[in-house]
Amino acid sequence: NAGVTQTPKFQVLKTGQSMTLQCAQDMNHNSMYWYRQDPGMGLRLIYYSASEGTTDKGEVPNGYNVSRLNKREFSLRLESAAPSQTSVYFCASRPGGEHEQYFGPGTRLTVT
Amino acid sequence: AQSVTQLGSHVSVSEGALVLLRCNYSSSVPPYLFWYVQYPNQGLQLLLKYTSAATLVKGINGFEAEFKKSETSFHLTKPSAHMSDAAEYFCAVSYRSNDYKLSFGAGTTVTVRA
Fold this sequence. Notes:
The structure holds two protein chains of two kinds. Chain A is an all-beta fold. Chain A is 0% helix and 50% strand. Chain A starts with a strand and ends with a strand. The A-B interface holds A 4, 31, 33, 35, 40-45, 48, 50, 56, 58, 90, 92, 94, 99-106 and B 4, 9, 32, 34, 36, 42-46, 49, 51, 90, 92, 94, 99-107.
């Protein structure tokens, strides 16, 4: 099992460009999550999907959109990147009936 | 609002010394509590979790944590630090009523001195 995979690992964007961060899990988990990690702030929830076909906003959703393409895949889109979106982005998944989340390796995004 | 506070953004310990990382949560409802570890340039790995069973929880790599409801705390300890324990540690809380979304503390970076 690969667990939770994320692509790309690194990305540099110019202000105003768009991109999609990809996340996939092969553990048949129902719930998936997107977080951003900034120094001194821990991880903050951007969006989550409790099950296939549903998505909900988290703590910091502005400037982002998500798509739960199927049970395996949950993508995060930046329509018009801003320097404030420079961060490390983590995807996570959680099986139904369990409490802990399983994290991917992260995508380091820099917006200049 | 539910929140998690980690006391101390940096902790430095000698190899072989006690590691103590503090975590307090603020909530009136029973939480689920977690400690995650992040090694440089990696994702988060679960160290241990409290889910309303035993209050003293043992995790991987010799870590343990004790849930104290009266103190709303979930401090992480390891009796003897090893060089490989150098990492960032995050305390997190979730609630069934909140779709098990995780709220994280700001993190504590541990350095281990030889």
